[in-house]
Amino acid sequence: MKHLRKRTIIAIAAVSLFTAACTKKKAATAAPPVPAPAAAVTTAKPAPAPVQATTKPAPVAVAQTPRMPNAATRARIDELLAKIEDAYFDYDKASLRSDAMNALQADSAELRDILKDYPAYKLTIEGHCDERGSAEYNIELGDKRAESAKDYLVQVGIPAAQLNLVSYGKQHPVCQEHDEACWQRNRRVHIVALAQAH
Question: CB within 8 A of 12, min separation 6: which ones?
Answer without folding.
Answer: none
